[in-house]
Amino acid sequence: MDYGTLRGIITIVVMVTFVGIFAWAYSSSRKKQFDEAANLVFSDDELNPVSKDSGEQK
Fold first, then answer.
1. pLDDT score at 52
2. What contacts 34, CB < 8 A, 6 or more positions away?
3. Rounded Cα distance, 34 and 42, in Å
4. Is the dihedral of CA 13, 19, 21, 27 positive or negative?
5. What pTM value is reported for the model?
6. How far is CA 24 from the centre of its chain?
7. By the 8 A CB rule, do 31 and 25 touch?
8. SS3 content of the chain, % helix, strand, coil (to 5)
9. Maximum distance among all alpha carbons in the chain?
């Protein structure tokens, strides 16, 4: 196996990996989970509330 064949095999593996990730990211079964993750920044719940003794002023 020469260098050109190895480069061709690596190119095909990378292309198949890219298409797999693309299909996973845009599949309709993942849409709900991605929409929920996108809206986490707008939730009113505080994940790490600041304690009163932390010294941070409001």
1. 60
2. 25
3. 14
4. negative
5. 0.56
6. 11
7. no
8. 65, 0, 35
9. 67
